[in-house]
Amino acid sequence: MSERAPYLASFAARARLSDPARAERLAAALGRALGRTDRAFDDDLAEDLAHAADPDGALVELVQLAEAHPEQLGALWREPGPRALLAALLGASRAMSAITLRHPDVLATLAAPSLTAAVDLGEPGNATELRAAYYRRLFEIAAADIAAGTPDAMPDVARAMSELVTATLRAALELARAKHPEADCVPVAIIAMGKLGGGELNYISDVDLIPITDTDEAGLALATTLVRHTFEICTAPDGPEPPLWPIDTALRPEGKDGPLVKTLAAHRAYYTRWAHTWEFQALLKARPIAGDPELMERYEREIWPLAFGAVERDGFVADTQAMRRRVQASISPRDKDRHIKLGPGGLRDVEFTVQLLQLVHGRTDETLRVRSTIDAIAALAAGGYIGREAAAELTACYTFERTLEHRIQLHRLRRSHTLPTAPADQVRLSRLLGVSDIAEQWEAVRRRVRTLHEAIFYRPLLPATAQLSADDLSLSPAAARERLIGIGYRDPAAAQRHIEALTSGISRRAAIQRQLLPVLLSWFAAGPDPDGGLLAFRRLSDELGTTHWYLGLLRDESDVALTLAHLLSRSRYIGEHIVAVPTAVTWLAEAERRAARTREELAAEAEAIFARHEDAATRALLLRRMRQRELLRAAMSDVIEGISTTRQEAITDVADVIVDYAMRAARDDFAGVHGRQVGGSLAIIAMGRMGGREMSYSSDADTVVIYEDMTAADATWLVTRWRSLLADPAEAPPLAVDLALRPEGKSGALTRSADSYLDYLAGRCEAWERHALIRARILAAPPALEERLRAGIDAARYRVGGPSPADLRQIRRLKARMETERLPRGVAPARHVKLGPGGLADVEWAIQLIQLRYGADEPALRTTSTKAAIAAASELGYLSTEEAERLLAAWRMASHIRAGATLALRRSGDAIDVIPADAHERSLIGGLVGPEVTERDEFDEQWARRARRARAVAEPAMYGEG
């Protein structure tokens, strides 16, 4: 064995590679190719790969490059910065590896890749040389992009790509002219449209172009020949260098039905007489980029401004809005939620919103006549057409979505606008974007984009009301009733009573309310439950109206008022709890104040409570209030950003802390009641959703309590007192403790000694109990006791050989009994997202049975998290990628529906598991679950489809062989 061999054994782990044996072979091959067999080489390689988004892919590409060009790669290897950047680039893009293999000289650019350097294509003598120069610069752009490592670089990347394509087209036109000297006197210009026109091109996409000329009939034929040759230089499939990109000329006058090249006069006539509304929107991006300078200048002066007169056409705004809806309707239902470009909340929502405002207001404000989307957003904000915060959000969301699109396309340099579903692709993209879960991040961003799009694109922004007097804002009762009915209030009489209560009198409070309410009434009406929103606002105002800050904050911070209206008109849960935590209104001014508190922060707060108070009841009350506050914080994030399963972890964290500290309060209380200290130790084991860190807003604390070195009587007293402290409903919501998963269930002792518990696990523990242990997580225990318990629990749940046939029969019988006995009477199984076909129980039991069967042999399966277990089962081959996606999709949607039922309808207990039969209630939940699911048919259809697919995966896993 060589000196290097044992060191290589840990190489895969250090480099985050998935196949250790393969990793060792490839690392050895790379070392041989470069003449390096030392440990320093292995260390450098492992560190570089560990920081790559796809370490496995990067290593494969490095080996290929080393075998093809050992000298060039060997020289680069001596430079840590360029070497690390190469690994990162190859981990992001296999297409860049292909460029490197053809042109190893590009490795030199890794020393200082630039996005802003002037494009230098040299003096190419033919199409092959031009394409080679293009790909060299493309490599440098990609390297600089990956080196930047942040979406903030996206505008510079898009600009650099646009400059590269522009320079390439100019060079191609010169090559074509050299081949066609007979066309030397024919003026030709190329107009960039779409993303190239806006200077915001992707790595790979259609290049939208319109060629023009200014000549007679004979010259028109020559111009057409010249243009066709120019395009062929870039797109023809022959030659040693691949084609550059498809060229699309469909945006020219008359589209594909018209001639390829028209004169400037023909363009002017077309836009003046025949162009459709969408063609003026497209014209907004038109930018002359190549060809005859005079012709380019004339197009800029005579044709481009026509875009800003189109708003005077009848139905212009309605036509533009209808076009967006048609574009969205054209997407396959399968891709709609993943389509970054065209789907709801995608790039087109931002672009249509911005372009409509430009076209409407650009007639008189020439500062809006810019082509780049990001520049246009900035111009709109500077001119006051959109708020500064809305502009910042649009810019951030657009930048994120464009960066995501770039990262997807960069991988293989292929056109793609949909978020991939394969777990490996999502992991790679998550690492490249610096997020934990790219699917959930995309979902959150697109929800925010959709909200902004609908607010700006379909409804004019309401003017600020602070400058208006009470007389200006007053409405007669008859007019108020008519308006309330018109904007969607279901009970206008009740709404009028709330308005009267809030605005009557001559106080400053009433005067400010009279300024606020006309705006708030419309903002409530923008939500699915305006009546509930207004009622909650009245209750909150009754609680806070006399404070010095509340109404002033709403009046002066329009975003706070708008967000509050958004929350109250969508969530009865928030409307109830914000009255108990009224200072939560201040969280709306800053998003970071709504962020979940860490477990350490919560524990520090609990310590402070214990330091200030000695009474157990007071301590428990403050702990429950802390939980209520954190649940409200999570609820606000769910309603504002979209329901996310990541919020389950925050809900569990606060439950963990108050469960732990409530037991400490019970122990301290013991001495006061009994006149002596209680000895020994207690361990709290979280079970069920608490164990999996997947608690919802109405979850109980499923736990098992174990004692050591104390009497059973003392332990029972502590557990009883602990439960009562948490369950007290006075002044703050209780947290019910459920001990039903203890040994022998409800017929067993309330708590057991550690020895008894471990003996039980090793001997009499039934199959259903071992199944329940899959989600067992030791929440609190002294270290030695925790170690003993974990060993015993692991031995019980991850038995060598897995469950016996008899065990499986018992588990399956229990599952079948649940499906038949626990479904509420009169509820169709398909409407029950927990126990119905394809619901939470199907998904969780299916993956837990896989864990029971194979957990002894597969450490990756030893997790209490459903998401992590599904991912591990997919990685290990127990589920296909498609099966894992189907289980996860149903599990996520079911979890979102349950959270939505609590948030929208204030439901709790088993009621959160049932999709309401009432269409209005269903729409309230649907508005929180996701974009485009608020209509009855689509809500039912989407859940039914996901549940059906999940059931098809779960049944074989639960009832298959074994």
Automatic annotation (TrEMBL):
Domain Glutamate-ammonia ligase adenylyltransferase repeated: start-end pairs: 125-300, 564-787
SUPFAM superfamilies, alphabetized: Nucleotidyltransferase, Nucleotidyltransferase substrate binding subunit/domain
Domain (PII-uridylyltransferase/Glutamine-synthetase adenylyltransferase) ranges: 322-456, 827-952
Molecular functions (GO terms): [glutamate-ammonia-ligase] adenylyltransferase activity; ATP binding; ligase activity
Pfam families, alphabetized: GlnD_UR_UTase (PF08335), GlnE (PF03710)
GO biological process terms on file: regulation of glutamine family amino acid metabolic process
Annotated GO CC locations: cytosol
Alphabetical keyword list: ATP-binding, Ligase, Magnesium, Multifunctional enzyme, Nucleotide-binding, Nucleotidyltransferase, Transferase
PANTHER family listed in its UniProt record: BIFUNCTIONAL GLUTAMINE SYNTHETASE ADENYLYLTRANSFERASE_ADENYLYL-REMOVING ENZYME, GLUTAMINE SYNTHETASE ADENYLYLTRANSFERASE
Official protein name in the record: Glutamate-ammonia-ligase adenylyltransferase
Organism: Bowdeniella nasicola
Species lineage: Bacteria, Bacillati, Actinomycetota, Actinomycetes, Actinomycetales
